[in-house]
Specification:
This protein is an alpha+beta fold. Among the domains are: 7-47; 78-107, no CATH class. 40% of the residues lie in helices and 11% in strands. It has 4 helices and 2 strands. It has helices spanning 7-20, 24-31, 35-47, 99-107, and strands spanning 78-83, 89-94. A two-stranded antiparallel sheet has the order 1-2. Helix 1 (7-20) packs across helix 3. The radius of gyration is 33 Å and the shape is elongated. The chain starts with 6 loop residues before the first helix and ends with a helix. The relative contact order is 0.08.
Length: 110
């Protein structure tokens, strides 16, 4: 009758073999393990991702005070591209002042 080892037991054997510096055949013979089964479990456990460890400390929220900017940086005109359902493309330069109006007009095209 063959004995069945759990994944934990195989993991322990794999660690013990690595620490022993013995050839695999000698380690398996000493512990009554089949070499092919040992290799199977070593590959299987190597392929499985390690369980996620919880962080050592929990993240902490830090209060932040926002301060309004004294000056608003100048915004350069941007190129706006609109692709219509019929495949036509409209491109235009949009400034910060004209953007709300352009956006409203684009919304009527849909």
């Amino acid at each position: 009758m063959t004995r069945r080892l759990s994944a934990k037991q195989w993991s322990d054997h794999i660690s013990q073999h690595a620490a022993s510096k013995q050839p695999l055949a000698a380690y398996c013979r000493q512990h009554g393990l089949a070499i092919a089964t040992f290799r199977h479990w070593r590959n299987k456990l190597k392929a499985e991702p390690a369980p996620a460890k919880p962080p050592a400390t929990l993240p902490t929220l830090v209060p932040v005070k926002t301060v309004p900017s004294v000056t608003t940086p100048a915004v350069e005109p941007a190129l706006m591209s609109v692709l219509l359902p019929n495949g036509a493309r409209i491109e235009m330069r949009v400034t910060e002042a004209s953007f709300p109006w352009v956006l409203k007009q684009v919304g009527t095209l849909a």
